[in-house]
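User: Need the bound-state model for zinc ion:
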Amino acid sequence: MEHIYSEFYNQKTKITELKPDVLGVVLHDDAENNNAKDYIAWLQQRMDNNELDKGWACAYVDKQTCYWFHPSSDVEWHCGDAFANTHYIGIERCQSKINGILSDKEFMENEEASFWIAALLLKKYQLPVNRETVKLHKMFFDTQCPARAWSIHLDNTTTNAENIKTLQDYFINKIKAHYTNIQENDTAVVG
Ligand SMILES: [Zn+2]
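Assistant: Bound-state model below.
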């Protein structure tokens, strides 16, 4: 996997302040056809147009690339919820648009990469992999996100606490499979 880092990693000026505490990760489905590299220009345009308040996350992932847009230690605008933005790291899973350019099988390859990135982040912050540290966007905000995963893994069933736990547990098991294989120096790529 190729890791690309934005200018925020080379400059003092950031969009936001440090998170008071990092409690875990939120896995998002972007509902777009953009790949991770497409987000470099996409986010630049958002900055140029002063539209960052429309949202952004730390990491944008597809099966080949992770674009690290803003340090994981800093507050993000990824959940529309103050507590989540100040305590959780956002991972945008790219090309997740339903009936978009990727088949379910192809999207699941991007998902797998997102599980690896989630595992690296949790390891880096010395956090375990469980329902406290692995969250869905819809747990914090009235949104379909992660809509593609909900469609693939839960067949678009009703959103309720039990089904949310089912998808969380699916993510948790996938992340755990990577987590156990990660060595200390693997986390050096985390942005
Ligand atoms: Zn989301």
